[in-house]
Structure to design on (173 residues):
């Protein structure tokens, strides 16, 4: 499973990499996850509506119990943000909680920004665990939000914006 993973800058942002860029930046790591696109191609191809975009906040969600494992969403995602459960993940989960649904073999998974934590007013686990402050989360539709201030005051890029999916994950350079 890869809900969040690392890839080199030049592989993540091929349209931004160039020969005169600092080697450390070009070959340096970028953290990747589902982009929670504003126009997600994975939603339109799902035959069971196991993948959908929430109206209230724009998160692209999955219902693992509705997923039939056809992997159309994996083929439609241009970012490689989805993984297929070839094995039953339950034996590898240390603590099963009622807040988080148990998944099974034969379904697709992706980052959901820890929706179960958001429902309780908590940050996604990756943001909370990042002590360096390299990850942040917030409502970018709110002009007064701290996340919106970060976007205004820093140079940011998105993954493959030319595809028209309107990724909602921004990278500060």
């Amino acid at each position: 499973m890869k809900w969040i993973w690392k890839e080199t800058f030049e592989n993540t942002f091929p349209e931004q990499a160039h020969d005169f860029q600092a080697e450390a930046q070009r070959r340096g790591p970028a953290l990747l996850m589902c982009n929670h696109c504003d126009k997600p191609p994975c939603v339109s191809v799902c035959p069971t509506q196991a993948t959908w975009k929430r109206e209230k906040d724009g998160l692209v969600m999955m219902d693992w119990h509705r997923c039939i494992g056809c992997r159309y969403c994996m083929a439609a995602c241009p970012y490689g943000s989805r993984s297929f459960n070839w094995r039953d993940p339950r034996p590898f989960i240390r603590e099963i909680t009622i807040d988080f649904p148990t998944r099974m073999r034969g379904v697709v998974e992706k980052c959901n920004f820890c929706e179960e934590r958001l429902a309780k007013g908590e940050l996604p686990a990756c943001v909370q665990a990042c002590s360096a402050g390299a990850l942040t989360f917030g409502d970018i539709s709110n002009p007064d939000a701290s996340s919106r201030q970060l976007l205004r005051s820093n140079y940011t890029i998105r993954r493959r914006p030319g595809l028209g999916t309107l990724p909602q994950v921004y990278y500060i350079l």
